[in-house]
Amino acid sequence: GAGLPEVRVLTVARDEGSLIRLCWREGIDVIGPFTNPPFGKFPMPWLGYLFDFQHRHLPQFFTAEAIAGRDSLFRRMLEMADTVVVNAADVKRDCAQGFPGLEQRVVALPFSAAPKPEWLATDPAATRRAYGVGERYFIVSNQFWLHKRHEVAIEAFAEVAREEPGLELVLTGATDDPRAPTRLADIEALIERQGMTGRVHILGLVPKLDQIALLRGALAVVQPTAFEGGPGGGAVFDAVALGVPSLVSAIPVNREIEDHVTRYFPLDDVPALAAAMREMLRAAPRAATDPQALIAAGAARRTAMGRAIWQAAAQAMDHARTARGVRA
């Protein structure tokens, strides 16, 4: 119904010979996106994909070898791909700054948050009860990586919770970080120091539908991250799809979705996040969102994404014709 061509999805073992045979057999015009460039010259137009430049923005979290490896991979991708897709305009700017002149074939895909119908059938009340969570809570749904800044959310919550009996904070997501072996213990110790034991729930990884139900029941999603490859990261992506308020760090990539974010706060600013939380608590209870309206809004965003992908594919075919004489 979006007015776009239908797309068949085919799977094949990732080796160049199998891919080439599949493309010839199925009459495929363009292939990708690849996260690693093919070996040697590829006989048809292809799309590449770059995730983010975290190693340039937060080099303290990477070894010198890892930084060099990422830079080498990114340069090869930008030089070899007929078109490269990225999740944010901020990543495209990083391509231009890191590899001047190689960003010309980079396409930043639009924000495409959309709910799945089964998400809207979840039961937030039953799910929070199953996890021992109260009626009033904020939620952070991030892996416990250092750059996600869980400390900021916990400290801001503690400041507000001392004034608000019954208020709780829910943390979902994998609780380890290979760069910080004591990450979970450090977070637990911070919660204890703040006097919030029993009011901050570390749930770890939970089934996706449970996480969605908890998001739907929250006062707001809190996203204190210091870095993302796509606007807002996964938690805000889901929150927008579900019509859930969000309190988001004001880093450049997150600013790309200003129309969808409830409130921004400066990175690592605990008092500002606490003020945003208080504002949410003072706000009138949010009205129930029409599921059909959420589905329609998501479909519109997905249509825009589909058009961008088709344009990227067309650009890849044009480049292959002019640069390599590929028949496309």
What does this structure look like?
- With 328 residues, the chain is of the alpha/beta class.
- Helices cover 42% and strands 12% of the residues.
- It has eleven helices and ten strands.
- The protein has helices spanning 16-26, 54-57, 64-80, 89-98, 124-130, 150-161, 183-193, 208-217, 233-242, 270-282, 291-324, and strands at 31-34, 46-49, 83-86, 106-108, 137-141, 168-172, 200-204, 220-223, 246-249, 263-265.
- The protein has a six-stranded parallel sheet with strand order 7-6-5-8-9-10, sandwiched between helices.
Short description:
The protein has helices at residues 16-26, 54-57, 64-80, 89-98, 124-130, 150-161, 183-193, 208-217, 233-242, 270-282, 291-324, and strands at 31-34, 46-49, 83-86, 106-108, 137-141, 168-172, 200-204, 220-223, 246-249, 263-265. The protein is α/β, with parallel strands linked by helices.
